[in-house]
Recover the amino acids of this structure.
């Protein structure tokens, strides 16, 4: 695995992360790794837009939809 060094982290940020790590029962390193891993796993807006486009595509026309509605009404 690769090591990451983050320079110039403000003291109040480090202290807040140390407290949260302790509350989670983790070391600061393990807590920071979890934060980074969760962030990397989240899709970007562009990835979500691509997925949404892919999943919402349809081959149905307006006529197909209106015919299906009419068929449903006729079956009542």
């Amino acid at each position: 695995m690769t090591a990451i060094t983050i320079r110039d982290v403000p003291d109040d940020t480090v202290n807040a992360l140390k407290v949260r790590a302790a509350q989670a029962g983790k070391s600061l390193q393990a807590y920071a790794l979890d934060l980074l891993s969760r962030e990397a796993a989240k899709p970007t807006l562009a990835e979500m837009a691509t997925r949404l486009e892919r999943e919402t595509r349809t081959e149905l026309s307006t006529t197909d939809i209106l015919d299906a509605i009419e068929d449903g009404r006729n079956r009542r």
